[in-house]
Amino acid sequence: MKRWYIITIMVAALFLSLGGCVPETPKELTIVQSEMVVEGAYSVVSGEAKLSEAAPMWESGKVTISFLDENGNVIREDTEWGFVDPSQSWSFEACCLVDYERTIASTYRITADKWMEILTSEMVLETKDAWSVVKGIARNDGDRPLHWVTLVVKFYDQEGALLGQSSTLTEHLSPGERWRFEVSSRWEFEGLASSYEVLREAD
Q1: What span, in angstroms and rounded, lies between the C-alpha atoms of 43 and 192?
Q2: Which domain holds residue 73?
């Protein structure tokens, strides 16, 4: 009987050393950071201006619209020109797409030449065709490589209802290696999400 115990232990030890079908210890994947940004949105400034009656004949009207971020920095400037009849108002419009840093204009500034009077102006954010993007960094905190790691991002509305989900994967992640991931909601649902959750597929 003791011989069978010894043989069993030896076989089990050999099986483990060869990395047989014994399940591995779960590897830890850490989401180091993540954020949700907007793509496809744009700000529109529109308004009306009027040329002063004191302006020289055939004077052209010029209006410069500056789109500003939350710190007052200029994101984009657009200049509108037009020949204006002093007896009529002139409608102008300028757009600011979300730039490379995903900055949405917080406010705007209009600079008009000395003959122009701004009658009305407003800025609206157009998000009808916009979508949400979650960007982040994941890190392998385990002591073995990870293979075919899939991250699932769930997008939620203001009430916490699930709008949809999308995923991304990486083939290999060495111990300590960081993976920059990006997941878009563009093809999953219309509109923008209010919140999100990042999960590993096995979670």
Answers
A1: 15
A2: 42-125
Whether residues 177 and 107 fall in one domain: no
Residues 64, 36: Cα–Cα separation, whole Å: 32
State whether residue 173 is helix, strand or coil. Answer: strand
The reply to whether 116 and 180 lie within a common domain is no
How far apart are the C-alpha atoms of 129 and 155, rounded to whole Å? 16
- The total number of structural domains that make up the chain: 2
7 within domain boundaries: no
Distances (CA, A) of 156 to 133, 150, 197: 13, 20, 8
The last residue of one of the domains, among 94, 125, 156, is: 125
Q: Which amino acid is at 48?
A: E
Res 203: pLDDT: 46
What would the two tokens of residue 43 be?
Answer: 């700000």
Which letter does DSSP use for residue 160 in this model?
S
- pLDDT (0 to 100) of residue 58: 59
Give the Cβ contact number of residue 156 at 10 Å: 16
**Closest-CA residue to 145 (of 171, 169, 172):** 172
Residue 84 near residue 61 (C-beta atoms within 8 A): yes
* Mean pLDDT, each 10-residue run in order, the chain (203 residues): 37 35 51 85 89 69 88 89 73 79 81 84 86 92 91 93 94 93 87 90 63
Task: Report if residue 3 sits inside a domain.
Answer: no
